Amino acid sequence: MSGMQNLKDMASNVEEDNASLPTALMMPFGRLSVESEEVRKLNINWQSYVKGQMINQEDYAMIAEYDLMGVDERGNIIETKGFQLAKTCLSLLARLSVDQTIRYILVLIDDMITEEKSRVSIFHEFGKRADFNVWGALLKFLNRQDQFIVHQTALIVVKLASWGKVTLPDNDLNYFLTWIKNSLGNYGSDYQHSVAQCLQLLLRHNSYRQAFFKLDGIQRGNAVIRVLADILRESGKEKVTRIIIATLRNLLEKPEERKNDAALSMVQCKLLPEDVEIVYEKLNERVQDLSTFDEYAAERENAQRLNENNFELLKTLTRLMDISTDPIILAVAAHDTGEYVRHYPRGKHVLENLGCKVMVMRMMTHNDASVRKEALLAVQKLMVHNWEYLGKQLKVS
């Protein structure tokens, strides 16, 4: 199956109705995020490792202490002992081999840097001070049999390469980009969307874009235009429409030497001005439905108010989701939960502590389609960390 067909099929999967829960759950976070939730529940017997002299006492003390802490306590120890924590995590990855333990350590690292992007500098600084090859220590896991380990590692590598000032060295970059290119060709993989997310993060950086292009990671013909045109006609999603229009615009404006070729391809696939005009009208209609800035500001204020009185309203929402059987109440509760964390990202930890997140995830298998839909959307909002980027994209459109 060709790469262009893969692209088209992946895009069409996004359009599947949320009622098809297994497929919908894969978008846009996929199996990796679902498995990560299970990994976080693991209880690793660190003492057995130190007794077996597989890890030293210093690393044991660090990981055992960190493992028992709550979110706020972990934040404090990262600030005060971040260098030691990075050393311990990387040391454990080098010394231990049990898949379950490796999974757990990788999720710890990913949670640490995802919670606060600037923390990637802790690992880079450790590598510099200790003369330790952080990239090599991680990239070796791309050859493991356990696919969760492989793809969780890839996501960590991408974040370290994208969120800090230290970039991937050329040799490691070529190796990693080749892995991404080959993995994207593995159509049908449960982790394909995670690979696509890795590529998306890398391609925001010009140096990585150029390297990927040199590896023939991007087809140099205009076959993609026909695929995008087909998706544009079939899609009813505003975000999909916005991205495709922006891509087509770039093809007409950016590469001076290929403007005519791109324009000809758009005409040949019947992507005429009338199509764009229809899209423009639809977008204008959508704009009328969008909240004004004042309404948005009010939503943010309301989200903060949910924290009042020791989270009394959030506790009420959680209780309703636990005891109510009314689909309307459950759908509204799930929606409000998602909006709360969207306007107050730090609130996701509050929801986890209250047990609200578990309630929402449970509703993704509810008999009522509207409840399933709102629960799925809420879970997606709980998992998304980069709302600032999404907001900028909406503003640009």
Order of helices and strands: HHHHHHHHHHHHHHHHHHHHHHHH
According to DSSP, the number of beta strands is 0
Which percent range fits the helix content?
A: over 70%
- What structural category do the secondary elements indicate? mainly alpha
Quote the distance from N terminus to C terminus: 33 Å
Shape: globular
Q: Mean pLDDT, as a whole number?
A: 79
Main beta-sheet annotation: none
Uncertain ranges = 1-28, 289-297, 385-397
Strand content is: under 5%
Radius of gyration: 23 Å
Q: So how many helices?
A: 24
GO cellular component, one term: vacuolar proton-transporting V-type ATPase, V1 domain
Keywords: Hydrogen ion transport, Ion transport, Transport
Protein name: V-type proton ATPase subunit H
Family: Belongs to the V-ATPase H subunit family.
3D architecture notes:
- The protein has 397 residues and is mainly alpha-helical.
- Helices cover 74% and strands 0% of the residues.
- It has helices at 3-14, 21-25, 30-39, 46-51, 57-67, 71-95, 99-115, 120-129, 134-139, 147-162, 170-184, 192-202, 206-214, 223-234, 238-253, 259-268, 273-289, 293-305, 308-323, 327-343, 347-354, 356-362, 369-383, 387-396.
- It is globular and about 70 Å long.
- The two termini are 33 Å apart.
Question: What descriptors fit this protein?
Answer:
single chain; 397 residues; mainly alpha; 24 helices; 74% helix; disordered N terminus; disordered C terminus; hydrogen ion transport; ATPase_V1-cplx_hsu; ion transport; ATPase_V1-cplx_hsu_C
